[in-house]
Amino acid sequence: MNTTLKPAYAKTNDAVDFQTNPSDYRHWRLSFDGRVARLALDVDETAGLTPGYELKLNSYDLGVDIELYDALQRLRFEHPEVGAVIITSANERIFCAGANIKMLGLSSHAHKVNFCKFTNETRNSIEDASEFSGQKYLCAVNGPCAGGGYELALACDHISMIDDGATTVSLPELPLLGVLPGTGGLTRLVDKRCVRRDRADYFSCTEEGIRGERAVEWNLVDEIIPASKFDEVIAAHALEASAQSDRPDSEPGIVLDNLERTFSQDSLSYPNVDIVIDRKLRTATITISAPSEKPESDLESIKRAGSQFWAFAFARQLDDAILHLRANEDQIGTWLFKTKGAIEHVEQIDAILMEFSADWFIREVTLYLKRVLKRLDVTSRTLISAIEPGSCFVGTLLEVALACDQVFMLEGEYEGNPLPPAQVSFSKMNFGPLPMVNGITRLSSRFLANPDRCDDLKGRIGERLEAEAADAAGIATFTPDDIDWDDEIRISLESRASFSPDALTGLEANLRFAGPETLESKIFARLSAWQNWVFQRPNAVGDQGALVLYGSGSRPNYNKQRV
Amino acid sequence: MNTTLKPAYAKTNDAVDFQTNPSDYRHWRLSFDGRVARLALDVDETAGLTPGYELKLNSYDLGVDIELYDALQRLRFEHPEVGAVIITSANERIFCAGANIKMLGLSSHAHKVNFCKFTNETRNSIEDASEFSGQKYLCAVNGPCAGGGYELALACDHISMIDDGATTVSLPELPLLGVLPGTGGLTRLVDKRCVRRDRADYFSCTEEGIRGERAVEWNLVDEIIPASKFDEVIAAHALEASAQSDRPDSEPGIVLDNLERTFSQDSLSYPNVDIVIDRKLRTATITISAPSEKPESDLESIKRAGSQFWAFAFARQLDDAILHLRANEDQIGTWLFKTKGAIEHVEQIDAILMEFSADWFIREVTLYLKRVLKRLDVTSRTLISAIEPGSCFVGTLLEVALACDQVFMLEGEYEGNPLPPAQVSFSKMNFGPLPMVNGITRLSSRFLANPDRCDDLKGRIGERLEAEAADAAGIATFTPDDIDWDDEIRISLESRASFSPDALTGLEANLRFAGPETLESKIFARLSAWQNWVFQRPNAVGDQGALVLYGSGSRPNYNKQRV
Predict the structure, then answer these.
(1) Contact predicate B69/B368, CB 8 Å
(2) I need a labelling partner for B153 at 20 to 30 A (CA). Which of A418, A431, A476, B283 fits?
(3) Do B506 and A531 touch (CB under 8 A)?
(4) Would the pTM of this model clear 0.90, i.e. be above it?
(5) Of B441, B294, B420, which is closest to residue B377 (Cα–Cα)?
(6) What average pLDDT values come out for chain A (563 residues) when binned by 10 residues?
(7) What residues of A are in contact with residue B197 (Cβ under 8 Å)?
């Protein structure tokens, strides 16, 4: 039975679909003028993702953010000419009121946490575009800008606020709702914009927000502009920023075709990613296929292939699969990764990514692979890889194994199977282009005590390692042979399925990120963890909690105990 | 009405007292042999802090940890000769089974969180002694070592495990209890001992733990030693470590006298720290008094003063006050800091601390001041300082203000009061000796965007800044004058008291630590935040939760949703 997911804006409780395209947008207006794009928020109140709330005052839900994510991806791939993006509002009364409160009050704990995570990833991708992709983001705050709306502004390179006497920036979550600004706001205030902590504290406790010169003095915004000159100044900024971009101004973009997907009750299949769910084991087996043929090796052919270029196609498919499983399959606590196909083809892909890294499209593909792998790192599922004969965990695909909590590798051959023993190998992609959210490679994080070990492995790029060597190299956690393989994997999956899923989430979030911390890792660790904690406190979500009572006219009666 | 707190081991639900002394220990045996001390855990099962559980198998509760903290403090101050400390068990069957599970099951969420925080601080102080104080900690694991017991071992410099076939190290919290090893274990595994993340993951999911060569290979312990040679090898290690210590071997120690304290219903008074609680405003006003006379200025007099030396006495009093308010006054959400006394005397204290920083006792006092101020940083209370005429927020005491979420400073004089306008000033103590848990000074964290600003302020050491100058220097958040002062403070305290205490805790934990992260900050941010989250999930603490069902014979039936 094949089924198609409903579009994101459908009023349905069915699965959430993370695929959309501009012709289906209900909430964003995307327009272009030479090297400048304009992304204007104009939320359709009636088009919430699920029933029960209206998206008033340009407030958003997951559906609005799915469109934003789609727009950001298209700006990167379909519009190589765009060097600057203006984020603004098309609603005359308001820039954005943040996440819809009624929606939050109606949502399960799991939905709130998952929604915040996706929203965080989307905002982080704005900063990724700015830092690595020659695409600057300018926020034109042309009306009141609150909560998640201001957090979106904080993800931009530059914040201009209209000086109209009514427009403020604010983070009213704490005084109004008893929760935190949970999508990066607090971290970006003090760590990105370096707002002094006492001012950040006052600001975050002030429902009405801050405007005018004080907002500039406190570095909450970069400038205030009189209404009469607002559009003109913003346009000049955008022109200036786009002129400094290294993106090509006359190359055609790469169109994001609709993904080919086939859903059935317990499976989901893309051309290069295949998922089979075992509900009893609470496990999704995700099998990634290498290119079936020798990949294109010159830029012209690669761009002709466009969204069919394996590295790009695989990234899109895995990205969609991750988002689908996270949002729609929350009872499936373990993802078991396998790969199959020709090792050589994956090696050739990696060689292409390195050789043409200066090309805008290849750069985008690599940056996208990086972002998809980061999604894996912060996914609250146990990740296990099984490296078997016939697999191709090399280079970029080895990163999938390195992202896993445990790595099983079969020692020797399967009895009665002609396939040679499994091998892994490194490519240059393992030593820099695909860092984790903590800013270092998965190998560096893995061998924190021995940086020399990374240097040694770098010297062994291309060498094929069978299980014993992979064990010695520190890649394989366990290397059972054919006799024990099935049992060991099964026991591992069964025991994982027997544990508290909450404790597993906490455990994995702590063990995956040895080493330094970055703005991103701080957001996913400190900020998100605290927000998740607050999100289940009775003061927020109990019968008398602030999120539940909001709009009822009643004030929450907090339990004042400090914990 | 004066009351005295019950000793920590009293079976009472009354207030927890963090003061004890070796003659009252019920759980630890402290002994000395030249430059080596031995701290042996020998928990009295019957001496739990509150009724309802027995401390079997050398398991611990807050009372056990209060004794440990007292012992660590005495080792630092009363025993300058001690260069190495052996932590071991005096129980033949077991090293330590970790935090008592029955106790955790009976405890409120607030108690669990507060208990973990104090336990973390105590373990961090072991590492502080090793890094800065010439006192190395050697863990002699002479029996099964589980959970919090292993986390204690992880805080030591060296872990030796007896090879007796029965002894393992383990972190069974996740498989057994559905919670995390929450007192630093996960962070220290991957960030201190650099255990590979996949091995750390397997280890933390394995109830029975790991022993023998594998424990060494995985770096879970530093060595295994046959039972026949265990004591001998440990003794040799301790001798060797103590021989490398720079602590003096023939100086007398400084005795920790019993603290002078006077409790009444709404106040707590020490010689240099005075606390008055306003229950309606949910505020404790904490007033610190400068030395009333010119402090001792030569080492001999300082050591003769001993625990009466102001810097040391103040540190002890504030430390005890913080611990008392955290544990026993959790409805009091805001701490308002004031100071009074002669600015010159505080400046003289700071000059002494800098001048004699090479002396062991002065070094200990400074390190202790650092640890007490760190306790403030991680305290889940709103911290506000009020700088008024007659105050002495300079140098070390200015750090109290810099630890605050907001700083009010009165501009000008009080009408009808002869005191001159309030002043603040910097000393060398503000520029290095008292870093936060994130490893940088409070000024560096405050001016993250402008490191130059710290350099500029360093050039202005000793300059007295009145409100306008303190505002310009970035120290004061607000500088109301006499007319507005009382109203502004009151409005601030009232609004703070009206907010969700949970959201405030999350907010403050995010805004206080801009800049880098360290092992310590990772423990308090990432690990503690996740543990707090797990600690209130139904899978842990619901009717069918693992913590509640432990020991009942029933297995928890987890809700398998991944969040």
Answers:
(1) no
(2) A476
(3) yes
(4) yes
(5) B441
(6) 40 77 97 98 96 96 98 98 98 95 93 96 98 98 98 98 96 95 96 98 97 97 98 98 96 97 95 98 98 96 97 98 97 98 98 98 98 98 98 98 98 93 98 97 95 95 98 98 97 96 96 96 92 92 91 90 91
(7) 405, 445-446, 511-512, 514
Partners of residue B269 on adjacent β-strands: B262, B274
Of B294, B302, B312, which Cα lies nearest the Cα of B257? B312
Q: Which amino acid is it at B335?
A: W
Question: What is the structure's pLDDT at B7?
Answer: 42
Put simply, the answer to whether B114 touches A563 (Cβ < 8 Å) is yes
Cβ-proximal residues to B119 (8 Å cutoff; 6+ apart), any chain: B62, B65, B99, B148, B183
Token duo for residue B155: 């805080």
For residues B346 and B348, what is the distance between their CA atoms, to the nearest angstrom? Answer: 5
pLDDT of residue B202: 98
Helix, strand, coil percentages in chain A from 3-state DSSP, rounded to 5: 45, 15, 40
Q: Which of A501, A514, A525 sits opposite B190 (nearest CB)?
A: A514
- A425 closest CA partner among A310, A347, A535, A318: A347
Cβ atoms of residues B100 and B52 within 8 Å: no
The tokens of B483 are what? 């007319």
Write the secondary structure of B395-453 as one string of H (helix), E (strand) and C (coil): CHHHHHHHCCCEEEECECCCCCCCCCCCCEECCHHHHCCCCCCCCCCHHHHHCCCCHHH
Instruction: Give dist(CA A284, CA A276) in Å, integer.
Output: 6
Pick the residue of B154, B174, B201, B398 with the most A CBs within 10 A to test the interface with A by mutation.
B201
Q: What is the pLDDT of residue B441?
A: 98
The alpha carbon of residue A189 is apart from the nearest alpha carbon of chain B, in Å, by 8
> What's at A31, amino acid-wise?
S
Phi/psi of residue B237, each to 5°? -55, -45
Q: Cα-Cα-Cα-Cα dihedral of B177, B183, B184, B189, to 10°?
A: -40
pLDDT at A219: 98
Nearest to A330 among B189, B527, B562 (CB): B562
- For the CA atoms of A449, A454, A456, A462, the dihedral, rounded to the nearest 10 degrees, stands at 150
Between B189, B501, B533, which is nearest A560 by CB? B501
Interface A-B: count of C-beta contacts within 8 A = 282
Q: From the candidates A108, A112, A195, A198, which should be mutated to test the interface with B, based on the most B CB atoms within 10 A?
A: A198
Burial B19-58 (b: 16+ CB within 10 A, else e): bbeeeebbbbebeeeebbbbbbbebeeebbbbeebebebb
Task: Give the pair of three-digit tokens for residue B531.
Answer: 């543990």
Determine, for residues A530 and B536 on separate chains, whether the beta-carbon distance falls below 8 Å. no
B96-116 burial, b if ≥16 CB within 10 A, otherwise e? bbbbbbbbbbbbeeebbbbbb
Q: How confident is chain B (563 residues) per 10-residue block, as mean pLDDT?
A: 40 77 97 98 96 96 98 98 98 95 93 96 98 98 98 98 96 95 96 98 97 97 98 98 96 97 95 98 98 96 97 98 97 98 98 98 98 98 98 98 98 93 98 97 95 95 98 98 97 96 96 96 92 92 91 90 91
Rounded-to-integer distance, Cα A534 and Cα B556, Å: 25
CB A300 within 8 A of CB A354: no
**ipTM for the whole complex:** 0.95
Structural contact between residues A318 and A393, judged by C-beta atoms closer than 8 angstroms: no
- From residue A204, alpha-carbon distances to A6, A179, A214, B282, B442 in Å are 38, 11, 14, 20, 20
CA dihedral A412, A414, A420, A425 (to 10 degrees): -60
Nearest alpha carbon to residue A392 among A464, A460, A444: A464
CB-count burial class (<10 Å; 0-12, 13-18, 19+) for A2: exposed
DSSP-derived letter for residue A323 is: H
Using an 8 Å Cβ cutoff, are B26 and B71 in contact?
no
